What does this fold into?
Amino acid sequence: MACVPCSCTAQILQFEGIRSSSPTLSSAVDNTLPAFVFILALIFRMERLSLKSSYGQAKLLGTLVSVTGAFVVTFYRGPSIIRTSSTSNSSDHHHHQQLLLFPKSSWVFGGFLLSLHTLVVAFLHIIQASIVNDYQAEFPIAFFYCFFASIQTTLISLVAERDPSAWRLRPNLELIAIIYAAIFGCAIRSLVNLWCLGKNGPVYVAMFKPFGIVIAVVTSSTFLRDSLYLGSVVGSAIISVGFYAVMWGKAKEWKIAKDIEEYSLMSTTERVPLL
It folds into this structure.
């Protein structure tokens, strides 16, 4: 399966990119995924763009607005709205700004690797969407995807990690995290992702990437009692506007396509002679 090497390559590029730059830059570049997927979907004719129609304009502008909101959340912190931790002070904000203003010497190389990672993930969405469109069997595809991905990552890990103690599992939080990642982060996520790709296409799935930031902001401030900042609120609002603009454009496009299909079916029925 071609999607397995793409997935493993994307993870390697992301880890190397983060090591060469920073998690902040990784988050910023990663949130450009909807733009990459949108362009590739247009190239491979999986998506139609009519700039003269309202739904086409909504899809294009919504994608750009959503990506802009993701950048706002990543790079702009702003004043604290709800302060729940004494550790969130001005020194942390100064350190955050230093990471952006004074990057490491390998910052450009790391950004290049992260950009390649996002492009590979975008291609992965396109490949998976084409596979699901040809073979309407999400469960077997998800099974073989996880199976071959496990084999490939195991072989790579055996070469990269030679210390036997690193493979020892203990009944603690680490084991719970591994089981959770295997069930929800790999198996269920792959199945849901494939099902949505088959139903609604790659652009629809990619649009949830920046929207995940909104969920992270809400859950971290609610359950982890993290401080809530103005930048997170403003960026989340911008992401929500762009997200729902794209969803409205897609719904409008589907409705028009359905109406055209029903009209064509009625016209064909009327032309059939009665015997």
Notes: Residues 86-103 have pLDDT under 50 and may be disordered. The CA atoms of residues 44 and 126 lie 8 Å apart. The chain has one domain: 3-85+92-98+105-159+172-270. The longest helix spans residues 230-271.
